[in-house]
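Can't paste images in this forum, so I'm doing it all in text. The chain is below; anyone willing to post the predicted structure tokens underneath?
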Amino acid sequence: MNGIVEGLLVLAGLEGALVGLSALAVRGIERAVPPQGGFLDVGAERLHVLDKGRGPPLVLIHGLSGQMGNFTHSLVDRLTGDFRVVAFDRPGSGYSTRAPGASASVTAQAATLAEAFRILKLDRPVVVGHSLAGALVLALALDHPDCVGGLALIAPATHPMSKPPLTFRAFAIRSPWLRRFFAWSLVTPAALLVQKIAVKQVFAPEVPPPDFATAGGGLLGMRPRSFESASADMIALDVDLKALPQRYASIRAPIGVLFGRGDHILDWRAHGEAMKREIPSLDFELVDGGHMLPVTQPDVCARFIRRIAARVADADAASPQASPSGV
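Text version of the structure:
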């Protein structure tokens, strides 16, 4: 009996040490990567928002385990001369909160962002969604069409997957209790040890920039609460992607998809070509590159986004509402 008690005490002490190490690492990470924007209260959530530039509104939404640094590293400054660029940390990601018990589904996140668009008076913006946020932007267009002028999807998740991408399988924890246990005990120390390997896998076959951990915000994804949110996002996405595709044909806003043919995270055939079959008018562009195109190929992404924005402007000009006579 004494041996069992001693073993439990050792385990409790180890757990306490890991929690303390994680908390210490979080403070260091947040000093190295502070918030870039301001904060907006939307219902029970507090969203981290960067609002920069002038012109037609353009919204940027990041993917799984990411934050706005995925766009501010290289892309945002290429767009602010022509657009009012608004970048969000999704609920639960980066410096945005997710209320306890709130749904992680893309439809729930889309509802929160739609309300944020209305508060910020973003009139039918072009909405850019990268990776998981491709599904979120599609949900936004389907459930809140008044909030979307056009969709520019970069390496988007659009259709069900038989299993998660290999790089993200550690997030596939269905139990909230286990998710929290791993997040506050093992995740941060382990992530700091394998950071460079994991980042290389996400960027492959391209090479991540040497400052991505800080300037690109990569370190923020290693915090315990970021892991918890990303895990919940992934589990919810599996359900979301079984329901969304049957509705895609009803989308009327101009839409485009940009994919890297060497993407190691999402298959361009399953998530890009499949969209083209369902929406024949979709602007589908395939380029040499990997999954992290907003960081590695910002000029390509900027041209793609401008092309979708031009389609939106042309559609608006051709609509009856654009005519003073109403005809």
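Strands lie at 38-42, 45-52, 57-61, 84-88, 126-130, 150-154, 255-260, 283-287. The domain at 36-315 is CATH 3.40.50.1820 (Rossmann fold).
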